[in-house]
Amino acid sequence: MKRALITGIYGQDGSYLAEFLLDQGYEVHGIVRRSTVEKAAHKLSNLAAVQDRVILHVASLENHLSLYKVIAEVRPDECYHLAASSFVSYSFDDEFSILNTNFQGTHYLLASLKELAPGCRFYFAGSSEMFGHAPTSPQDEDTPFNPRSIYGISKLASHHLVRNYRDRYGMFACTGILYNHESPRRGFEFVTRKITSTAAQIALGQKDRLQLGNLDALRDWGYAPDYVRAMWLMLQADEPGEHVVATGVLHSVRDFVRLAFEEVGLDPVRHVETDPRFFRESERVPLCGDASRTRELLGWEPTLPFDRMIQEMVRADLARLQAGSDG
């Protein structure tokens, strides 16, 4: 039985990945913070369906020794490094913490694996934010990187570190350059979940307005369970490398809002207003991924269309609110 170790196991991607790997017959281990265990009912809600089937270990990405001890105990065959300080809009509020967590955490994991489990296959969760102000669109694996946030910089530095460990030490180490991907497990701090949850609240009479930034901002949005399948496929390949994971289709925030409100039978014009506080600098060239290489080499394809993904998110938020959960 293969043994997998996941950082960020209780997040959107980590929880879907844990379920996927369990279905594949893996023994699944996850790294969590002590504060997560202490608030398990809330923090581990994404793992509710499989919590009794995963093995959790308390450690911190900022503490090399704690990670070293976990890897010494687990000796994983595959390691999926998903945990990170990931909310881009907060990046300049706490630059040092983000750089330390995202870069040093990756370094501590790689160094520990090199010493204790050199045959372990390693996946690093890169991001389209590494492209930043991209020179062309769509972007592929050969597009130059030009990050414009501390988050993007920390991810790019980690990506280069992953490549260095692969080239210098012969480790099977991959980076997935994932574009935006959503699901009912998306955090409430992200605009997509803000839209679906507020649409549900308005439909139930719990709110009246939704305030957003630039409705014309464009994103390449995919479905999270499709993207975690791509992570797994990367570690099953014959050779390690970098892979863009994206739909290659752009939609605006306005499109997302329209579909979410249509699902609850409401006109967004009556309920949605823009607020300058939520505006971010727009990309001169939109971030849109070309996943041709991933499709060709890994046989990966997205399965759930944009409109059905939004439908699933809205329905999940309606069910949550009707059940009386506060999220």
Structure commentary:
It is a single chain. It is built from eleven helices and 13 strands. The protein is of the alpha/beta class and 327 residues long. The chain folds into two domains: 3-181 and 221-245, Rossmann fold; 186-220 and 249-283 and 305-322, Alpha-Beta Complex (UDP-galactose 4-epimerase, domain 1). It has a seven-stranded parallel sheet with strand order 3-2-1-4-5-6-11, sandwiched between helices. Strands 7-10 form a two-stranded parallel sheet. Strand 5 (121-127), helix 6 and strand 6 (173-178) form a beta-alpha-beta unit. Helix 4 runs parallel beside helix 5 (95-116), helix 5 runs parallel beside helix 6 and helix 7 (191-203) crosses helix 11. The longest helix is centred in the N-terminal third of the chain and has 22 residues, at 95-116. The mean pLDDT is 93.
Q: Kindly state the number of beta strands.
A: 13
Helices and strands, in N-to-C order?
EHEHHEHEHEHEEHEEEHEEHEHH
- Give the radius of gyration: 19 Å
The spatial strand order of the largest sheet comes to 3-2-1-4-5-6-11
* Assembly form of the protein: single chain
Main sheet, how many strands, which sense, barrel?
7 strands, parallel
CATH topology of the largest domain: Rossmann fold
CATH class of the largest domain: Alpha Beta
Total count of helical runs of at least 4 residues: 11
Give the full name of the CATH homologous superfamily of the largest domain: NAD(P)-binding Rossmann-like Domain
Distance between the termini: 35 Å
User: What is the count of structural domains?
Assistant: 2
CATH architectural grouping of the largest domain: 3-Layer(aba) Sandwich
Mean pLDDT: 93
